[in-house]
Amino acid sequence: MASIAPLLELVRVTKQFPAAAGAGGLTVLDGVCLRINRGEALAVVGPSGSGKSTLLHIMGTLDRPTSGQALFNGSDLSMLNEQQVAEVRNRQIGFVFQSHYLLPQCSVWENVLLPTLACSGNRGAKPGAEVEPPEARAERLLRRVGLADRMDHRPAELSGGECQRAAVVRALINRPALLLADEPTGSLDHAAATALGQLLVELNREEGVTLVVVTHATELANRMSRVLRLVAGRLVEQGR
Predict the structure, then answer these.
(1) Within a domain: 3
(2) CB within 8 A of 128, min separation 6: which ones?
(3) Which residue positions in the chain have pLDDT lower than 50?
(4) Which of 94, 177, 189, 237 counts the highest number of beta carbons within 10 A?
(5) Which residues sit opposite 41 in a β-bridge?
(6) What's the pLDDT score for residue 1?
(7) pLDDT of the residue at 181
């Protein structure tokens, strides 16, 4: 039986940043190899400045490697033009950052639905599945994350944890195959961070979305099925 292809694969990915004149460049990622299967929940840990966010940005098409390949659904992202890469990013990948980046002038409901304006259709739905309209999906997910009575509120009227939960719903609204979270609990107190971590794990299972979390938080990392540590530009499997 043929093995199932991974959703995302990094093949000898290197990322270098040029330094000032007369100095050598900085190698942040050094031949990274990684296979991420569909539906997996993965954490990447490591010290500040180790390249975790750079790695996540390459996974999410926000950056390109200096050398090596980033394969998404079997397609080499480096072979796509900017418009094609943007389409993959908008339709197939969701992002959650340490800051929620909700638009302050918009309600939670409006913030959550904003990505659907640039992504018409339902390409994330499984073939043959009943299509869930964006408005119905937004309402269902907001209720699921405990924001049923906050839909008409603006971000300034919400707690930090509530804003992050809204950001998670916004990231999921277009049914992405991959959800990338960069220090999603970094600005939250312990109680809110614990609740958000549990929510991410539950949504990974309920929505069937592949989850990759970059974090300093050991408690959050240990909720994932795999934990990798970034050391000297290389990924090392870490026991928990």
Answers:
(1) no
(2) none
(3) 1-2, 122-124, 127-128
(4) 94
(5) 211
(6) 44
(7) 97
Q: What is the CATH number of the domain that holds 97?
A: 3.40.50.300
Q: Provide Rg for the chain, Cα atoms.
A: 18
Residues 6+ apart with CB under 8 A from 11: 33, 68, 69, 70, 71
Residue 157 domain-assigned? Answer: yes
Which conformational region is residue 79 in: left (phi greater than 0), alpha (psi within -120 to 50 degrees), or beta?
A: alpha
Q: Residue 211 sits in which domain range?
A: 8-237
Note the pLDDT of residue 130. Answer: 63
- For residue 124 the two structure tokens come to 């994330």
Q: How far is CA 56 from CA 21, 59, 62, 154, in A?
A: 28, 5, 8, 29
Domain total in the chain? 1
End-to-end CA distance of the chain: 32
Q: What pTM, to 2 d.p., does this model score?
A: 0.91
